[in-house]
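Sequence of Tricarboxylate transport protein TctC (Roseovarius mucosus DSM 17069).
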Amino acid sequence: MNILKTLAIGIAALGLSAPAAMAEWQPRKPIDFVIMAGPGGGADQIARFIQSVAEKKDMTNRPLIPNNKGGGSGAEALIWLNSTNDPDHTILVTLNSFFSTPIRQPELGVDIQTFTPIAMMGVDPFALWVHKDSGIENFEQWVDAVKAADGEYVTGGTGTGQEDSIVFAYLNNAFDLKSKYIPFDGGGAVAAALAGKQIMATVNNPAEARGFFQSGDVRPLLVFSDEQMSAYPGIPTLKEKGHDFSYYNQRAVVGAPGMSDEAAAYYQKLFEDIFNSEEWQGYLEAESLSPLWMNPDEQRAYWQLQVENHTKLLSGMK
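Predicted 3D structure, token representation.
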């Protein structure tokens, strides 16, 4: 009986020790907070806002250090995480190039299902933007202008296969359009190029175009969300134009392949706390993002669905 009692106590102790050990894990050095885009874009803005919340509320014992690696449509960031020798201190702020870049560049040897789910922080819709001086005030006028330019209409984005180029490709196919596409280093640079009249139209997130929209330099013509956006009253969706198409950018955090369960649990709790904070919920509302929390299993299922969707979308690009 004494032996059985001792075993029972030992088993109970083991049952308590595993969660306790996971709760006790702490980063031992600054956290490499990789951003798979250049400075100024939506992913960069979100990463730096998250960093500020964590710092303001003293949520980590080691700082989050933003690290922009947007080269190769995010390939630089994916390779960085895939080859890190310290997965417990390396996390990534993602956008949809997390799905599209490995599809377009299979030679990278990146399997996103080996990455560690941390947090889905929300999804970000897109809008079609033109300069205020373009004389274009609605989507129909824009289509006519692109057709009249006969291939000389100049658009801009963050690179072929990136989110904006996928949306432009859909519009080109759906409305029989031809245009020139110029790549820039990040969504912030794209928005600035439109405001500076270097290009004629963009597909940007609300956060990326906010300053230029508030100053009146650019105007939205169309949104690629399921419903009209409160930030742009009266601006129609593409669905209202008879095309069953919407497109959202994921705003998520993932860990490097090989991250320990203890570290994953730490980051999952950290970003859940950030997600539930008054600051992040206010950011979602102010920047027209939609909240979309998911647990790790739901994130992996979402990744698989988005890989399937982006494989179809990319196969349709001209």
